[in-house]
Design goal:
Strand content: 25-35%
Number of strands: 5
Shape: globular
Helix content: 25-40%
Distance between the termini: 45 Å
Low-confidence stretches: 113-118
CATH topology: Transcription Regulator spoIIAA
Largest sheet: 5 strands, mixed
Mean pLDDT: 90
Order of helices and strands: EEHEHEHEH
Length: 118
């Protein structure tokens, strides 16, 4: 799997390409950990060109989401292919991690003001 990165302020888009499986765990984990340390508030994973995910990839997504949430940051997924979306749905990933149809939709969440608590 290949990862390319685009940064816009505190939002980073990671473009994944290829198979997101056990063999890709180190490169993904290293990228996310580095972005966390740099203070990234929103990591958007563009899955448009991901052809396959396995259980280790699902676990990495959930762990990344939980680690970011603790630091008041977020993880979003964008545009998974139908097969990949089906695997994500079967694993209940959308109950934890927001999945958006487009990159623009995911970026809008980052630019929205935070809700005011009373």
């Amino acid at each position: 799997m290949q990862i390319t990165e685009q940064q816009e302020d505190s939002v980073v888009v990671l473009e994944l390409e290829g198979r997101f499986d056990f063999g890709a765990r180190k490169v993904f984990k290293d990228a996310v950990e580095r972005l966390q340390k740099e203070g990234c508030s929103h990591i958007i994973i563009n899955m448009e060109h991901v052809s396959f995910v396995d259980s280790s990839a699902l676990g990495l997504l959930v762990i990344a989401h939980q680690n970011l949430k603790v630091k008041h940051a977020q993880l979003s997924l964008v545009n998974p292919q139908p097969y990949v979306r089906q695997v994500l749905d079967l694993a209940n990933v959308p109950k934890m991690v927001q999945i958006f149809p487009t990159l623009l939709d995911a970026k809008r969440v980052s630019s929205s003001p935070a809700p005011v608590s009373s």
